[in-house]
Amino acid sequence: MLEEKCNFDEVRRILGAGHLSVQRFIKSGFFTPVVKGGGDRHEYAFRRDHIEKFLELLGRGAPELTDCPDDALPLQTAARTYATPLDRLCMSIILGHTELAGRIKDASGLGQFVITRAAIKNFKRQFREEGEDYLLEGMFRFRHMQQLEFDLDEKAVRSAG
Q: How far, in Å, CA of 135 to CA of 139, rounded?
């Protein structure tokens, strides 16, 4: 069976994310390109199933909603509003340290996920107090237990700043 591949711009479209957000996800080790080009983003190729698996893991256990609750924000908006690294916030959600308010039924990519203002403030406080080591250690333990299939590179994760 052939694996379906997608380039950098297709990953952006699937996630509904910007160029810098996708770069941070790559540096954090969420998406490892199967083909890595020079400087041109079109020379990257990713396995589409890895991107879809990431979205599945992110939304695991989140209740399905028809609208965004009044006390919540879309995930990317919350990260921008509260000056929080989106990749680290996603890592915290996958590890179960931060909880999503839900998943919008007719939305796609990262735009389907919503988080309460209280949850994002709690993540920001915890991230500021404990640093990112608690996330990195948890992610590597999680990877070791083979519950996560992303090819994480410790140097890549620690170099993301």
A: 6
Give per-residue pLDDT as tens, 104-121: 999 999 999 999 999 999
Backbone angles phi, psi at 62, to 5 degrees: -75, 135
113: part of which helix (H) or strand (E)?
Answer: strand 113-116
> Rounded distance, CA 40 to CA 106, Å?
33
Place of tokens 């991107």: 51
HSE, side-chain direction, 13 A CA sphere, residue 88: 26
Kindly report the pTM of this predicted structure.
Answer: 0.80
Amino acid at 145: M
* Residue closest to 68 by CA, chosen among 117, 125, 122: 117
